[in-house]
Amino acid sequence: MRLASFPGVLLAVAPSLAAADEYIWPSRYDELEDILSLQSGYQGRNFSSAITPCTQGGNVRGRQNAAEWIRSAFHDMITHDSALGTGGLDGSIWFELDRAENGALAFENTFNFFAYLHSLRASAADLLAMSVIVSHSGCGGTTRIPFRAGRVDAKGAGPAGVPETDTPLGTVLGRFATAGYSQEDMIALVACGHTLGGVHSHNHPDIVPGESGDRYNDTVVKFDTTDGEFDNAVAVEYLSDNTQNPLVVGKNETKNSDKRIFSSDNNATISRLAGDNAEFEKTCAEVFERMIDTVPSTVELSQPIEPTDIKPYITDLYLNDNGKLVFSGRIRVRTTEGAAAGRLASDLDVQVHHAVRNKRWSCPRINATYVGDARGLYGETFAWYEFGMELNATKGISKFHIETTVRSTGERILYDNGGDGYPVTDELLYQRADSCVARQAVNGTRAMDATVAVRKDRASLPLRLELARYTKMTGLVVREWEVETVAFENTGETRGEDDGWVIFKAPTGLKTASWLTWFDIIQEGDDGSRIEFLKTEACPRTSS
Ligand SMILES: *[C@@H]1O[C@H](CO)[C@@H](O)[C@H](O)[C@H]1NC(C)=O
Ligand SMILES: *[C@@H]1O[C@H](CO)[C@@H](O)[C@H](O)[C@H]1NC(C)=O
Ligand SMILES: *[C@@H]1O[C@H](CO)[C@@H](O)[C@H](O)[C@H]1NC(C)=O
Ligand SMILES: *[C@@H]1O[C@H](CO)[C@@H](O)[C@H](O)[C@H]1NC(C)=O
Ligand SMILES: *[C@@H]1O[C@H](CO)[C@@H](O)[C@H](O)[C@H]1NC(C)=O
Ligand SMILES: *[C@@H]1O[C@H](CO)[C@@H](O)[C@H](O)[C@H]1NC(C)=O
Ligand SMILES: *[C@@H]1O[C@H](CO)[C@@H](O)[C@H](O)[C@H]1NC(C)=O
């Protein structure tokens, strides 16, 4: 462990993890880590809100979103061919909804719930994979299912072959085997999937009698009596012959697919799952992990994304009207381990310490203010601290450190992002207020003037805007992205103390229906700077 000394204080430097595992900010997985870690609370991304509580299905009778999400992932994945390396969890399901085997509202619903999280940094397939983990945790699953990122969205339909209720056992076994799953895996996957949800009369009027015309008011018979819990009741009830599972006790034997699958190894696997709830829980976490990591061979998944311990967010770094540099943001501190680890939000001070352009450390540390908490999956918690400061623009900024102090013990820890500090640059300053999207559309287009202050010594480098434009695909719920490049123009206007920056603008227009998007600002050249994944924002309402 290294020790860094500062005038008058000795700080312990945060213990370094093995280099390969260490989180270094910024990371291209920051957005996915946010979606995963910030399920609710302050700055919550709210993925889990649609499955909280576990039985939630909006106000639609019988619907259970958590069950639908898991089912969508299964239908997408099971057409994988492990020998050929094709198919798997790739979002092709949304191109396959005209097939009888995918004949349910579940799949479209599923995407609609997380469409707002879909971006170039969060593929629909990654979100579908994450939805399984969100459902698992939200319904009481306790064994952590790791989330690996990197799934690539399919551009069209994949092969058919999702088993249906009347598919003969041999064909079902064959399909699972082709996808890389044994008979035991198959039984576990079906049992784990059917601990939630049920059969809808709208999809299967032949199995569950009831309203089949009105798709929002159909009759649903659940697979087990505890559809709000991730438990082994589906297996226990099957073996004790008192199950209501319509795919076991249905009138038409040909369609009793759960019965055929569960009994296919003389009840060996289902008995094991019924025998011990903890065993069931652990098996489900394993088989769900395999399910979401079943991807085409061209896809390389990341290491599991762990909740980041200390994570900064820059909300602003720009030149204000007085020529000062405004630097503000948030620090997110993982508090899951609580007081024992010196991470009680109410007993913690967080400070930001920046270095000026020439890397010298500035004098004052800035106290960040505690503003609230967020909650993740499997009991993760985070506390948020916000900071803001005005800096001498001539001196500039190059990086910062984060320091935490446990008030009650005085223990101080310095976080230096693996040694080099958290990097920031004053070469490119995104002038957020000048870059907002007009509220009024002209001919269906809203104007945006992306505005950047470029430090004079860098002003000769070409600068471009890379804007992600999405378009709805005909008849489909998923959207397609195209990246458009717009060149910035030097306006000749200067800003900042000593007129040290030149203002560049990239005028563009955004379609009214799809103005909410993301963009990068990229300076060319080997050592060019960039600001990535900025979000478009509407201009403030003007009082009239
Ligand atoms: C998440 O929910 C909270 C509370 O309802 C809301 O304030 C916030 O805007 C939501 N966040 C997103 C990203 O939708
Ligand atoms: C839904 O169906 C049930 C019976 O099947 C009926 O009693 C109820 O009125 C229906 N509700 C709506 C909103 O149509
Ligand atoms: C499997 O269990 C079911 C439910 O208890 C039972 O009806 C069936 O006979 C069993 N099958 C075998 C092969 O043991
Ligand atoms: C039972 O299901 C099979 C397969 O879908 C079908 O061919 C058969 O007609 C059904 N039997 C009855 C009595 O409805
Ligand atoms: C900042 O926090 C420290 C404790 O960590 C405290 O001693 C100091 O007075 C605070 N400074 C200001 C300006 O509030
Ligand atoms: C900003 O820093 C420069 C360089 O150190 C100095 O000359 C100038 O006086 C400072 N400006 C203010 C407003 O403090
Ligand atoms: C709007 O579009 C129409 C038809 O394409 C065109 O004649 C008109 O000049 C446009 N208006 C503006 C303000 O661009």
TrEMBL record:
It comes from the Eukaryota. Residues 123-332 form the Plant heme peroxidase family profile domain. Residues 1-20 form the signal peptide. GO terms for biological process: cellular response to oxidative stress; hydrogen peroxide catabolic process; response to reactive oxygen species. Gene3D superfamilies: 1.10.520.10, Peroxidase, domain 2. One of its GO terms (molecular function) is peroxidase activity. Its EC number is 1.11.1.-. InterPro entries: Ccp1-like, Haem_peroxidase, Haem_peroxidase_sf. Keywords: Heme, Iron, Metal-binding, Oxidoreductase, Peroxidase, Signal. Belongs to the peroxidase family. PANTHER family: HEME PEROXIDASE, THYLAKOID LUMENAL 29 KDA PROTEIN, CHLOROPLASTIC-RELATED. This is Peroxidase. It comes from Clonostachys solani.
